[in-house]
Amino acid sequence: MPDKIIDKCEVHCINRDQVELAQKQMISDDEALELAEIFKALSDTTRIKILHALMLQELCVCDIAATISLSESAVSHQLRLLRSKKIVKFRRDGKVLYYSLDDNHIENLLKQGLEHVNE
Amino acid sequence: MPDKIIDKCEVHCINRDQVELAQKQMISDDEALELAEIFKALSDTTRIKILHALMLQELCVCDIAATISLSESAVSHQLRLLRSKKIVKFRRDGKVLYYSLDDNHIENLLKQGLEHVNE
DNA sequence: TAGACATATGAGCAAATGTTCATATGTCTA
DNA sequence: TAGACATATGAACATTTGCTCATATGTCTA
Fold first, then answer.
1. Is residue A44 a contact partner of residue A52, using CB atoms and an 8 Å limit?
2. Which residue has the higher pLDDT, A3 or B39?
Protein backbone atom coordinates (compact mmCIF):
# COMPACT_ATOMS: atom_id res chain seq x y z
CA MET A 1 0.00 0.00 0.00
CA PRO A 2 2.73 2.52 0.84
CA ASP A 3 4.50 1.28 -2.30
CA LYS A 4 1.60 2.35 -4.39
CA ILE A 5 1.65 5.80 -2.88
CA ILE A 6 5.39 6.15 -3.29
CA ASP A 7 5.13 4.95 -6.87
CA LYS A 8 2.67 7.67 -7.54
CA CYS A 9 4.95 10.14 -5.85
CA GLU A 10 7.91 9.04 -7.91
CA VAL A 11 5.91 9.54 -11.04
CA HIS A 12 5.19 13.11 -10.16
CA CYS A 13 5.96 15.03 -7.03
CA ILE A 14 8.26 17.90 -6.34
CA ASN A 15 9.34 17.71 -2.74
CA ARG A 16 9.48 14.09 -1.76
CA ASP A 17 10.35 14.82 1.85
CA GLN A 18 7.33 17.01 2.27
CA VAL A 19 5.08 14.40 0.73
CA GLU A 20 6.43 11.69 3.02
CA LEU A 21 5.98 13.91 6.04
CA ALA A 22 2.48 14.83 4.96
CA GLN A 23 1.60 11.19 4.48
CA LYS A 24 2.96 10.21 7.87
CA GLN A 25 0.77 12.64 9.75
CA MET A 26 -2.11 12.40 7.34
CA ILE A 27 -5.62 12.25 8.68
CA SER A 28 -7.22 8.83 8.23
CA ASP A 29 -10.02 8.31 5.76
CA ASP A 30 -12.42 7.55 8.58
CA GLU A 31 -11.49 10.61 10.55
CA ALA A 32 -11.69 12.84 7.49
CA LEU A 33 -15.10 11.43 6.72
CA GLU A 34 -16.40 11.99 10.24
CA LEU A 35 -15.06 15.50 10.26
CA ALA A 36 -16.59 16.26 6.88
CA GLU A 37 -19.91 14.86 8.12
CA ILE A 38 -20.00 17.24 11.07
CA PHE A 39 -19.27 20.23 8.92
CA LYS A 40 -21.75 19.07 6.33
CA ALA A 41 -24.40 19.13 9.02
CA LEU A 42 -23.62 22.81 9.50
CA SER A 43 -23.32 23.65 5.82
CA ASP A 44 -26.91 24.54 5.06
CA THR A 45 -28.70 27.82 5.72
CA THR A 46 -31.82 26.18 7.07
CA ARG A 47 -29.89 24.05 9.53
CA ILE A 48 -27.81 27.03 10.64
CA LYS A 49 -31.00 28.95 11.36
CA ILE A 50 -32.48 26.04 13.28
CA LEU A 51 -29.36 25.49 15.36
CA HIS A 52 -28.90 29.17 15.99
CA ALA A 53 -32.44 29.40 17.31
CA LEU A 54 -31.85 26.37 19.51
CA MET A 55 -28.77 28.01 21.02
CA LEU A 56 -31.15 30.35 22.83
CA GLN A 57 -33.92 27.99 23.89
CA GLU A 58 -35.54 24.67 23.17
CA LEU A 59 -38.29 24.82 20.55
CA CYS A 60 -40.93 22.54 19.10
CA VAL A 61 -41.09 21.72 15.40
CA CYS A 62 -43.88 24.07 14.46
CA ASP A 63 -42.35 26.97 16.38
CA ILE A 64 -39.06 26.44 14.58
CA ALA A 65 -40.99 26.44 11.32
CA ALA A 66 -42.80 29.64 12.28
CA THR A 67 -39.56 31.27 13.39
CA ILE A 68 -37.64 30.65 10.22
CA SER A 69 -40.64 30.75 7.86
CA LEU A 70 -40.34 27.27 6.44
CA SER A 71 -42.73 24.36 6.16
CA GLU A 72 -42.96 22.01 9.11
CA SER A 73 -42.17 19.11 6.85
CA ALA A 74 -38.93 20.65 5.68
CA VAL A 75 -37.98 21.44 9.26
CA SER A 76 -38.81 17.93 10.35
CA HIS A 77 -36.61 16.46 7.62
CA GLN A 78 -33.70 18.61 8.69
CA LEU A 79 -34.24 17.77 12.35
CA ARG A 80 -34.16 14.12 11.46
CA LEU A 81 -30.77 14.62 9.86
CA LEU A 82 -29.49 16.58 12.84
CA ARG A 83 -30.80 13.91 15.21
CA SER A 84 -29.05 11.16 13.26
CA LYS A 85 -25.77 13.01 13.77
CA LYS A 86 -26.44 13.54 17.46
CA ILE A 87 -26.46 17.28 17.06
CA VAL A 88 -29.94 17.80 18.46
CA LYS A 89 -32.05 15.83 20.92
CA PHE A 90 -35.69 16.11 21.89
CA ARG A 91 -38.06 15.58 24.78
CA ARG A 92 -41.72 14.84 24.40
CA ASP A 93 -44.44 16.82 26.13
CA GLY A 94 -47.73 15.28 25.11
CA LYS A 95 -47.89 15.42 21.37
CA VAL A 96 -45.30 18.16 21.18
CA LEU A 97 -41.60 17.42 20.69
CA TYR A 98 -39.19 20.00 22.04
CA TYR A 99 -35.81 20.03 20.35
CA SER A 100 -32.56 21.30 21.81
CA LEU A 101 -28.84 21.12 21.10
CA ASP A 102 -27.39 17.79 22.11
CA ASP A 103 -23.74 18.72 22.18
CA ASN A 104 -22.03 21.94 23.22
CA HIS A 105 -19.17 21.22 20.85
CA ILE A 106 -21.56 22.20 18.10
CA GLU A 107 -22.40 25.43 19.86
CA ASN A 108 -18.69 26.18 20.08
CA LEU A 109 -18.23 25.49 16.39
CA LEU A 110 -21.10 27.82 15.57
CA LYS A 111 -19.73 30.55 17.79
CA GLN A 112 -16.28 30.24 16.30
CA GLY A 113 -17.74 30.32 12.81
CA LEU A 114 -19.67 33.46 13.72
CA GLU A 115 -16.48 35.11 14.93
CA HIS A 116 -14.90 34.31 11.62
CA VAL A 117 -17.82 35.80 9.74
CA ASN A 118 -18.08 38.94 11.86
CA GLU A 119 -14.56 40.20 11.62
CA MET B 1 -42.87 41.94 6.72
CA PRO B 2 -43.21 41.22 10.46
CA ASP B 3 -46.96 41.01 9.84
CA LYS B 4 -46.47 38.17 7.49
CA ILE B 5 -44.42 36.29 10.04
CA ILE B 6 -46.89 36.93 12.80
CA ASP B 7 -49.71 35.84 10.56
CA LYS B 8 -47.93 32.62 9.94
CA CYS B 9 -47.37 32.23 13.65
CA GLU B 10 -51.01 32.84 14.41
CA VAL B 11 -51.97 30.18 11.95
CA HIS B 12 -49.87 27.61 13.67
CA CYS B 13 -47.46 27.97 16.53
CA ILE B 14 -47.51 26.71 20.04
CA ASN B 15 -45.54 29.09 22.21
CA ARG B 16 -45.90 32.51 20.73
CA ASP B 17 -43.54 34.11 23.25
CA GLN B 18 -40.80 31.74 22.33
CA VAL B 19 -41.32 32.35 18.64
CA GLU B 20 -41.20 36.10 19.11
CA LEU B 21 -38.05 35.82 21.18
CA ALA B 22 -36.47 33.51 18.63
CA GLN B 23 -37.32 35.90 15.82
CA LYS B 24 -35.89 38.87 17.69
CA GLN B 25 -32.48 37.30 18.10
CA MET B 26 -32.63 35.40 14.83
CA ILE B 27 -29.54 35.24 12.70
CA SER B 28 -29.88 37.27 9.50
CA ASP B 29 -30.17 35.57 6.13
CA ASP B 30 -26.83 36.96 5.09
CA GLU B 31 -25.06 35.85 8.19
CA ALA B 32 -26.61 32.38 8.02
CA LEU B 33 -25.52 32.12 4.41
CA GLU B 34 -21.95 33.17 5.15
CA LEU B 35 -21.75 30.77 8.04
CA ALA B 36 -23.13 27.93 5.95
CA GLU B 37 -20.61 28.75 3.23
CA ILE B 38 -17.67 28.40 5.61
CA PHE B 39 -18.87 25.07 6.89
CA LYS B 40 -19.63 23.93 3.36
CA ALA B 41 -16.01 24.56 2.49
CA LEU B 42 -15.10 22.09 5.23
CA SER B 43 -17.79 19.56 4.42
CA ASP B 44 -15.93 17.43 1.89
CA THR B 45 -13.43 14.65 2.56
CA THR B 46 -11.01 15.81 -0.10
CA ARG B 47 -10.96 19.36 1.18
CA ILE B 48 -10.54 18.16 4.76
CA LYS B 49 -7.51 16.13 3.70
CA ILE B 50 -6.03 19.05 1.82
CA LEU B 51 -6.52 21.48 4.68
CA HIS B 52 -5.28 19.01 7.26
CA ALA B 53 -2.09 18.53 5.25
CA LEU B 54 -1.68 22.29 4.95
CA MET B 55 -1.94 22.66 8.72
CA LEU B 56 1.51 21.09 8.91
CA GLN B 57 3.30 22.77 6.01
CA GLU B 58 2.78 24.56 2.75
CA LEU B 59 2.54 22.26 -0.27
CA CYS B 60 2.40 22.54 -4.04
CA VAL B 61 -0.50 21.17 -6.05
CA CYS B 62 1.16 18.00 -7.27
CA ASP B 63 2.49 17.17 -3.81
CA ILE B 64 -0.97 17.57 -2.35
CA ALA B 65 -2.24 15.27 -5.10
CA ALA B 66 0.48 12.72 -4.35
CA THR B 67 -0.20 12.94 -0.63
CA ILE B 68 -3.90 12.28 -0.78
CA SER B 69 -3.81 10.09 -3.91
CA LEU B 70 -6.07 12.18 -6.10
CA SER B 71 -5.67 13.68 -9.55
CA GLU B 72 -3.99 17.05 -9.82
CA SER B 73 -6.98 18.39 -11.66
CA ALA B 74 -9.37 17.45 -8.89
CA VAL B 75 -7.03 19.01 -6.33
CA SER B 76 -6.73 22.15 -8.39
CA HIS B 77 -10.50 22.49 -8.63
CA GLN B 78 -10.84 22.17 -4.88
CA LEU B 79 -8.03 24.63 -4.26
CA ARG B 80 -9.78 27.08 -6.49
CA LEU B 81 -12.88 26.79 -4.34
CA LEU B 82 -10.86 27.18 -1.15
CA ARG B 83 -9.09 30.20 -2.62
CA SER B 84 -12.37 31.84 -3.55
CA LYS B 85 -13.44 31.57 0.09
CA LYS B 86 -10.14 32.95 1.35
CA ILE B 87 -9.35 29.75 3.15
CA VAL B 88 -6.06 29.10 1.40
CA LYS B 89 -3.54 31.38 -0.25
CA PHE B 90 -0.54 30.65 -2.43
CA ARG B 91 2.88 31.94 -3.32
CA ARG B 92 4.61 31.31 -6.62
CA ASP B 93 8.10 29.88 -6.89
CA GLY B 94 8.88 29.61 -10.58
CA LYS B 95 6.24 27.45 -12.11
CA VAL B 96 5.31 25.91 -8.78
CA LEU B 97 2.51 27.27 -6.63
CA TYR B 98 2.80 26.64 -2.91
CA TYR B 99 -0.49 26.66 -1.05
CA SER B 100 -0.98 27.36 2.64
CA LEU B 101 -3.80 28.16 5.04
CA ASP B 102 -4.89 31.78 4.76
CA ASP B 103 -6.77 32.10 8.00
CA ASN B 104 -6.11 30.59 11.40
CA HIS B 105 -9.80 30.69 12.21
CA ILE B 106 -10.11 27.77 9.86
CA GLU B 107 -7.38 25.89 11.66
CA ASN B 108 -9.23 26.46 14.91
CA LEU B 109 -12.45 25.16 13.42
CA LEU B 110 -10.67 22.06 12.19
CA LYS B 111 -9.06 21.47 15.56
CA GLN B 112 -12.33 21.90 17.36
CA GLY B 113 -14.02 19.55 14.93
CA LEU B 114 -11.31 16.98 15.52
CA GLU B 115 -11.84 17.23 19.26
CA HIS B 116 -15.49 16.56 18.72
CA VAL B 117 -14.73 13.52 16.58
CA ASN B 118 -12.10 12.07 18.90
CA GLU B 119 -14.02 12.00 22.11
C1' DT C 1 -62.93 5.04 20.87
C1' DA C 2 -63.12 8.69 17.19
C1' DG C 3 -61.20 12.60 15.65
C1' DA C 4 -57.97 16.37 16.02
C1' DC C 5 -53.42 17.56 16.24
C1' DA C 6 -48.09 17.44 16.13
C1' DT C 7 -44.72 15.33 13.87
C1' DA C 8 -42.45 11.76 10.86
C1' DT C 9 -41.65 9.67 6.59
C1' DG C 10 -41.38 8.29 1.58
C1' DA C 11 -41.40 9.47 -3.24
C1' DG C 12 -40.29 12.65 -6.62
C1' DC C 13 -37.96 16.50 -8.63
C1' DA C 14 -34.88 20.46 -9.52
C1' DA C 15 -30.54 22.32 -8.17
C1' DA C 16 -25.93 21.81 -6.48
C1' DT C 17 -21.62 19.14 -6.12
C1' DG C 18 -17.18 16.45 -7.14
C1' DT C 19 -14.84 14.02 -10.34
C1' DT C 20 -12.76 13.05 -15.00
C1' DC C 21 -11.17 14.31 -19.49
C1' DA C 22 -9.57 17.55 -22.72
C1' DT C 23 -7.59 21.80 -23.33
C1' DA C 24 -5.68 26.39 -22.03
C1' DT C 25 -2.44 29.37 -19.52
C1' DG C 26 1.76 30.84 -17.71
C1' DT C 27 6.68 30.03 -16.46
C1' DC C 28 11.14 28.13 -17.03
C1' DT C 29 15.15 26.31 -19.75
C1' DA C 30 17.79 24.64 -23.68
C1' DT D 1 11.95 31.16 -29.13
C1' DA D 2 10.29 26.24 -28.78
C1' DG D 3 9.14 22.81 -25.87
C1' DA D 4 8.55 20.95 -21.29
C1' DC D 5 6.31 21.42 -17.16
C1' DA D 6 3.00 22.97 -13.27
C1' DT D 7 -1.31 24.38 -12.80
C1' DA D 8 -5.94 26.25 -14.20
C1' DT D 9 -10.19 25.89 -16.44
C1' DG D 10 -14.46 24.37 -18.97
C1' DA D 11 -17.71 20.86 -20.20
C1' DA D 12 -19.95 16.71 -19.10
C1' DC D 13 -21.77 13.32 -16.08
C1' DA D 14 -23.26 10.76 -12.01
C1' DT D 15 -24.37 11.51 -7.28
C1' DT D 16 -26.15 14.05 -3.54
C1' DT D 17 -29.14 17.38 -1.49
C1' DG D 18 -33.27 20.08 0.11
C1' DC D 19 -37.66 21.03 -0.84
C1' DT D 20 -42.83 19.85 -1.67
C1' DC D 21 -46.70 16.94 -1.55
C1' DA D 22 -49.15 13.08 0.12
C1' DT D 23 -49.57 9.93 3.64
C1' DA D 24 -48.40 7.54 8.05
C1' DT D 25 -47.62 7.45 13.05
C1' DG D 26 -48.37 8.50 17.66
C1' DT D 27 -50.67 11.20 21.40
C1' DC D 28 -54.31 13.66 23.49
C1' DT D 29 -59.25 14.80 24.45
C1' DA D 30 -64.25 14.82 23.98
1. no
2. B39
